[in-house]
Write a structure and sequence with these properties.
Blueprint lengths: L6 H11 L8 E3 L1 H7 L2 E6 L9 H10 L3 H6 L1 E4 L3 H12 L4 E5 L5 H9 L3 E4 L4 H15 L2 E2 L6 H17 L8 E5 L4 H13 L4 E7 L4 H6 L22 H10 L2 E5 L1 H15 L9 H8 L1 H4 L3 E6 L6 H14 L3 E9 L4 H11 L3 E8 L9 E9 L3 H13 L4 E3 L11
Length: 415
Amino acid sequence: MTLPVTFEDIEKAQEKLSGKILRTPTIPAPALGQALGIDLTLKLENLQLTGSFKSRGAYVKLSSLNAEERARGVIAMSAGNHAQGVAYHATALGIHSTIVMPAATPFTKVEKTRNYGAQVVQFGATLAESRDKVEELIAKHGYVLIHPYDDPMIIAGQGTAGLELMQDAGAAGAIETLVVPIGGGGLISGMAIAAKKFNPAIEIIGVQSEQFPSMYAALRGQPPRFGGETLAEGIAVKIPGAMTTEICRTLVDDIILVDEIEIERAVNGCAEHQNLVAEGAGAAGIAAMIKAPERFAGKRVASVICGGNIDQRMLATVLLRGLTRHGRLARLRIDITDQPGTLARVAGLIGRSGANIVEVHHQRMFQDVPIKQAELEVLIETRNPDHVLEIVAALDSEGLKTSVLSNMAMEGRPL
């Protein structure tokens, strides 16, 4: 089958991009790989100026427009990363850009897009609904559409990430399996074309959210199914591209669906083990390894951290929840007698056990306990789950009935 994008197209795109974007590093990731039990290499597209790989395709497409098209201005629909890539490069090229973003797009992506010079219109709950507004604005103003994924130049531009990865990874065969997040399919399509040129035997694995398994369904001839909130809004695409679907049908070996907890654990794992800030979509490749570590064991695996534009409040929540899962933050409920000195006694026991008290809630009025008793809820910093259990045992041995309210790490799950 003849594909709509060739390896030569990707090489030409690489030439165009020279000096216009960062050639992001391809690094061994021993700490994260060890936590996953995998020989892991990462392509760090989260380090791009705009925080994701989308700058690649955006520049390649925008730079191809003729004078009349540039004068009309451009429009794009995006949950954030394509928006920032288009806005940044359009402004640099002197082209007016309008970006339509779903209403629930994280604030950080909306503000960054505006700061890059775009006019932002927020409309609809999903990209599919945003597309309706795009069509309305094109009819009204004559804007040129810069599609986020279903365009040969966009695909070729995104493919340069795969070209760099394979060039930097060393000899053919150095990477046996390439794991790539899938939204509309532009990134995995371009990267697969580039990777297969270097190593025809390389295994290409896509990753989608269980909430939006659009490419997974399309390749199986299933009706689309989608819905619900997702941390990986960057790959929350209801309908994949026609071109990208055909490329994936030809080159992608399998697609793994990951749930929200796996995506969250991947974001946390990137930060904790590799000091990398990744958004939910950007960490989806790692989520697949958390989902099915046996699938990748014993192989030389590469993935792309394709974006780092995560809301700071959301990142803080993910990290705190990660501490809780790993037993390094624990919330205890302790039954005490309501008399002077008891709170100090509890604090002393916890301190002597080597934990640090972060918060204390002393409940007398709103709990179903006897009149001469009270409940303490104590948030503590600890070393690990075993340490939490040691503290509970120490409190119980002193007649202080204690229960753990935290959701500590699930057995047998990496990260």
